[in-house]
Structure formats: C-alpha cells, structure tokens
Amino acid sequence: MSVFIHGGQILGPNGVERADVLVTGSSIVGTGLDLPVPGNARHIDAAGCYVMPGLVDLHAHLREPGTEEAETIETGARGAALGGYTAVVAMPNTTPTIDSPSLVRDVLAIAEGALCEVVPAAAMTVGREGQLLTPMGELARMGVRIFTDDGRGVQDPALMRSIMEYATGLEAITGGAPVVLAQHCEIEALSAGGHMHEGEWSTRLGIGGQPSESETLMMLRDIALARRTGAHIHFQHVSTGEGVEIIRQAKADGVKVTAEVTTHHFTLTDEACSSYDPVFKVHPPLRTAADVDAIRAGLADGTIDCIATDHAPHEPHTKEFPFDQAPPGMLGLESALALALTELDLPIERVSELMSSNPAAIAGIGDRHGNPVEAGQRANLVVVDAESEWTIRGTAMASRSHNTPYEGRTVKGKVRFTVLDGELTVDDGVATR
Amino acid sequence: MVDAELRRPRAVAFGRGGLTRFVPQTTVLSEDDVARALKRMAHEIIERNSGLDDIVLIGLERGGVPIAHALGDALAAIEERDVEVGTVDASFHRDDISTTHVLPEVTRIPFSVTDKHVILCDDVLFTGRTVRAALDAVTDFGRPKTIQLAVLVDRGHRELPIRPDYIGKNLPTSRDESVRVSLGGVELGTREALENGTREGDS
Amino acid sequence: MKDLLTIGDLGADGIQEIMHAADSFAEVCQRPIPKVPALRGKTIASMFFEDSTRTRTSFETAAKRLSADVMNFSASSSSVNKGESLRDTVETIEAMGVDAIIVRHKSSGAPEQISRWANASVINGGDGWHAHPTQSLLDVYTIREEGRTFDGLRIAIVGDISHSRVARSNIEAFRTLGAEVTLVAPPTLLPPHVEALGAHVSHDLDAVLANTDVLYLLRMQHERMDQALVPSLGEYHRAFGLTLDRAKRLPSSALIMHPGPMNRGIEISPEVIDDERVRVLNQVTNGVIVRMAVLYLVLGSAAADRSAS
Questions:
Q1: Of B43, B58, C22, C209, which has fewest CB within 10 angstroms of its CB?
Q2: Taking the model in full, what pTM does it have?
Q3: Which residues of A are catalytic?
Q4: Tens-digit pLDDT profile for residues A165-197
C-alpha cells in the first residue's frame, strides 16, 4: 500500500521545499517532483499545506488506567492524531501510578493499535510519594527513557540527588541513550494553599497564590544537583520568566538541561482566572503577560526545547466545583499546533523542532519520529494547512472531556492528514478509526 | 412648574427597562383651576367631618404628597388651625413588584393614626391598586376611625372596588392616554418609549 | 440587575440606590409591625456552605420582614465533596422553585459560578477571601447615617487584609464613593501585590491614627499564628490593636467599626469596647435594613427585567 502526498511544501533535510512524498509500507520511499507513483497509491492533495514530521508530545495525561471516564488511551491517542501527533509520552500519574514494569507493559498492551504511538513514562518514586525509588533499572531495560513524578515535584533534595546519581548509571543499560529525569518544579511548601499565580489577580480575586519561586527554587536546586551528578534534567511546563532565564544560564554553563513549555503558558495569563471558571485552573498556573513574553522569547532563541501540551482531561462535572476545589488541568492535544502557528511568530522549521524533532530526541524515539521528510525515514508525518481557520470547541474534540480553555477561539492551522508508520490516522481532518 | 416625576431618584443599577416620556396634548386644568378644586375639596372635607377634629392627611408617594400639603394648607386656612400631614410609600404593599419597580421613598407618619379620620391624598386615581396598597400600609400603623380618599383627578378604569370621597376633576380617558398632574395644572397626553440609556429629567 | 456579586457590580449609582431604598426600610423597621408584604410569594434560598450564624440570621430577618419565604440549605463543604458538584447542588435547590439564592461559601468565586448556572437571582453572602458586598453596604450605610460624606473621608482598615473578604469589598466600596483608604497591617497580613487594591498601605497604626475619620478593625484569626504570619496575638495587639492609649489619640469625631464578632483583647482592648465612638451594634442593626434593600431591589429589578422581556 502506498500513499502519494502531492502538491505540498515538505520540511526536508534542506528546509522547506516544494516536493511530493511517496510512502510505501511504513517508510518514506521518495521525495521530490515527478516521482514514479504506483497505480494503486492513495493520492493526497497537500496543495497549500506543509508536510512535516509527525508531532511528538512529551507531556500528556491519558488517564488510563484509573480515570477512564475522563480519557482513555484510545481516545487520547485519537485526539493526538487529530492534533497532528504521531507519538505522545504518557504521564505516569494514573491510578495506580505507572511505577513498575508490569504496569508499563499494561499501558503498552492497551496502546496497541492506538492512533499514535504511546510512550510510557514511569515514576521516579514509588506511588509518586517522594519516598522510595522505583525500579528504574528494570524500567530502563524495557525501554523507559523518561522518569517523572509529574503532578508533583520531588520535594526532598537528598532523594533527588540520589535519583540523579542512580540515573546516570543506567546508561550502561540503555547503551548510552540518555535517561531523562523530567521534573515538575514546585516547592509545595511555597505553593500550598495556592490555586493560581500569586500576583495582582490572585490578590483581587481572593484566591490563594502560587508564587513564581515555588517553580524557580526547585529549578535552581535541580540545576545544582545536575551539575554535580551529570544527570539529564528536563524541566516540565516552565511557566515563569525567571525560570526561562535560569535555564538560559544553565545551558550556557553546560548543564545537561532541557525544557518544555505548554501551549497555555504562552497563550493565556492569570487574568483569565477572573471569571472563576476552573477551566483556567492548571498547575503550574497561568502567569503574567511578562512571563508569556519571556517564554515566547525562550521559544524563539532556543532556551526552550519543546512545546508540550500537558493535555489533562477532566470530566465536565469536576470543573463545576469551586475554583479552589476543582482539579487543575486543561486539554491540549487537539489545539496545540494551531495555537503555536497562530500565536507564535516563528518559522515553520522552528515550530517543527519544538514540536517534533526536539521532543523526539528527548523521549529517545528519534529513530522513528521527528526526522526530516526524506527517503528512508519512517513515515510518521502530518499534513497541515497553516492558513486554514477553525474555531475551537470542547465538545467537538475526540477527548472524552471538554475542558479546553480556548472555547470559541478562532485559530489558523488545520491538521488535514496524519500518517503513522505509513498508515493514515487522520484523513481529511477525520480520525480514521 | 414642578413635575413630580422629575424629582424621582434615578434608578440606574436597579432601573427597569421600558422607560417612557410624557407627551402633553391638552391642558385639562390650569394652575388656578387646581387651586380652586383643592379649595372646594377642603370645604367638602370639613363639611363631611363636621370640622377638623381628628383629621389627618396622608399623601401617597409620590404624586399625592404635594396634593396632601396643598389640601392641608387649604384646610388650615379655612379653619385657622394646623392639620397634620404625613406621607406613605405604598410600594412595599403592592402586588406587582415586577411592573412597578422604582426606588421607594421614606414613609413619614409622625403621628398616631389610631381613632383618626385619615384622608388619603393622591394626584390621579386610576386602577385603584396603589390606593389598595396604601390602605394596607396605613393600617399597619394603627386603627383609624375612618379612611377617606381625596384625589385631584379621577380618570376611571378601576380594577378594584375603590371609590374616592373627594374629587377635584372627573376626567374620562382611554387606557393608553396618560395624565400628568402637578399643582401647576393637569395635562392629558400620551407616553412614548425612550431609547435605552436616556432618561427624562437627566441633563 | 439580576445578581449582587461584588461591589464592582453596583458602582457608585448602585450603592446610592441601595442607600436610598435602605432609608425606607429603616423606617419600616421602626413601625409597630416591622414587616411589609413586598416579597410575598417569593422564595429565597439561603445556601450557606460555610457557617455564619450572624450573616444568615441577618439575611433571614431581612427576608422575613419582606414576607418572603426562606428555604434553608446548610452544607458543610465536606458533605458537598461526596461527589456532588456545586452545580449539581445549585440546580437541585433551584428545581424546588426559588427566586433568589443567598450564597455563603468558603471558596472565592462560588457565587459568581452559581450565577452562571442559576436563573434565580444570586446574592453574595460572602465568598472566601474575595467579597462580602452586603457587609460593605451596611458599613457604608452606618457611616452615612452619621452624616459623613465619603468624598475625602479618611478610612483606615486594620488587620488581616490578606485573608479578608470584608477588606476587599470595603476598599472597593469606600474608594468608589471617594474615600481615602489606608490599609494598616504587618506585611505578612497584606496580600502580595497589594497595590492592585488601590489603597494606601502602612505598617504603623500609630502613624495613621491622628489622620483617621473611620477606624475599621478586622477580625484576627487564630490560625494566622500557626501559619507564622504573626508571632503572637499579644504582639499583634500591641502593634495593631486599638488600645486605650491609641483610642485617646484617635480623633474624638472618628468612628470605630468592626464586622464582628470582636476578639476582645486582640483587635480592641476591653476598655475601649464601650467607647462612644464604637458603632458595632449600629452595624448589626443596619445589616438587616441594608439586606432588606438589597433583596427588594435585586428581586424587583430581576422581576422587572423578566416582565419586560
């Protein structure tokens, strides 16, 4: 079976160029003009579209096992495909926590046949309780490359040092591939009682605040420890301008640090909470316009490596509690690319780095995701019409939940087709199954 | 000429929609006519009650208040003695909060009504609903010997079994007409809707 | 205006209209029969998700003096946590047929959320650290009753500003009417970015006293000690309490106010409680009057809006 994608602009090894793409089996077999196309090939008209490597999300909550009423691996993967993703890293804060080889195997088994590749991350500490190390060696041996207690940061500095030291020893198991420690930076003693960014708006609204320092102090601690141990620390969902500057400095100093920001942290501010609608409640919280500006600058200058979604489905009634009682989190998979294209004034190549090649490398799946569109690469692709406008609607999403903070917002950038291992997962904007 | 309506406190935050403005068409009573009518009504009150013993006047907010004071002055001039005048806002006793919603005025009845002859005074008697509400309001203050009703204009269209005891002028009207009354005269006209955001009397 | 959620909803006009109507209800409360049938047939649900006997009693007295039927709903937040969302709870109550809902909640913003789900009028009876508009209205009424005009009036609010819905609403109400508001507290009891509230700030009560027309004391919660926000109640009292010595230095024409209940010996010394400048009981009396005005105007204008549309 072949797929012939014609008329588009590809993101190839030499940047953007006008070229057709021929996929046969699970691989790209040719790019260019006047390709010999087999008679039975499926023709896809990509005129006016970019043909890009499929997106990779380093940070998605698929909720399975444990909270299937909010999302399942199947529905999450479908939403991911509709958003242009060919791989998502599934966060381990499920019920139970993904902290053992058997649970990783369960997730992989459930994800068999899903509309995108699901890459399980595993917890750093048992039950994400911040007490005992998970069997990181066994987990690494079965392919886990990202360890995180996401939803919480590791509070104990001595424990974090131990995790980092242990992780550096695992490269003997992984054959030198990096083991990434992804940290949710939040000093809970500082953020306790907080439900939004501590600032002018929290003061006006009378909602407890989470100061920026609850994020930055843990970043500074982990950079110091990473410097000492040589571990690869990855900062999740960086939300503060100060945090961006800390990373910039650490990178200049040669520390092994990478960082992601979420779509919402460069598109929304704490002012959104003034409606008291918990759909705007998220951890880390939406911060100020100055933070948004600093994050955008970090995305442009390379300080920030990735755009992640922190896709966090919550079933509708849970967001109908008071702001301080509702769970934090918002949907992201189906809107991230459009928001990046609409809100960021970045060249498409940079957007592709941020959403595909960089996260693929960090997740250890660079062999099959995030590569330039060229012959010989695995056919994980997305065809996106960067100018096509559409309006975001929570109920129109594939997710089992509807908690998008962008309800009613008109954006440009529509995913037309997504190709996973040579197979169409999204066909003219519709999931194939 | 002082139009009582113009002195109403503005209701902006709690205003109701559908504001209207009075458009005069014909003058029914001149200022002198009003004065003569009130004087006659004063004589009738004295005659009916055999003097002013135990007589108190209560004006209905808002149009009835100047009428009560004017009647009180006329009574005092005839009998050469003071008459007590109070005011009552019947808003809280109405049965139609949804259609009559305006800012209430303070009821001031600084005397006992028990065993008195209360003369309720209003500018225009129309459906009778305001008077019905005022009867309830006044009886909350005590048990008058009688309550009598004096109105400057009776325009008909009663919806309740209420009949005035003293009338300045019987004025047949149609329901969609409007009457504007002050001590300066009585006019017949119509009401037209104001556009949102403009209010009569503002400037 | 369908709902009363914050002072900001009212603006200066709305505050003045409530004051005007409150004068009428003050008279009603003086009558031999202090009750009028203005809201006969209306049902008012009082939904208190947080205990407050004072506020609940004040609202219920107001509603009953207007002849409304009052439906009581008590919910400790824990019982509501048994899976029933705030929306579920509100829709259940509304289905019983209510015209207005008075909401008291420990979570900031809950009344605003409820107003989005309910057709009935929503009146904020105090939410979290956010707003307590009827408290502010009764405080404005109490100051106005003394013949004071707000333009240029110097009001000092003393105490735990950070965790106080009364402070937030009063700053807004007093400033809307033209008063100069100074917040007096240690930095730990001021919210971060206090400048967002638009008031002056002082950490020294003694420096403020002589230039104060209204001294407004806030209730000090014991749990602030556990949070290490102040060292001890004794130190708080010595630095920010109204002692006899400070009362002597407060202008003789000044008013002393407190939303109650007062902590004797903490916000105010026992020997100052009977000072003739204290207006705490007037505040309580005026609470009923002002809440009558709020219920009457909100339900009346909501009904007028419905019949107009």
A1: B43
A2: 0.93
A3: 310
A4: 999 999 889 888 889 999 999 999 999 999 999
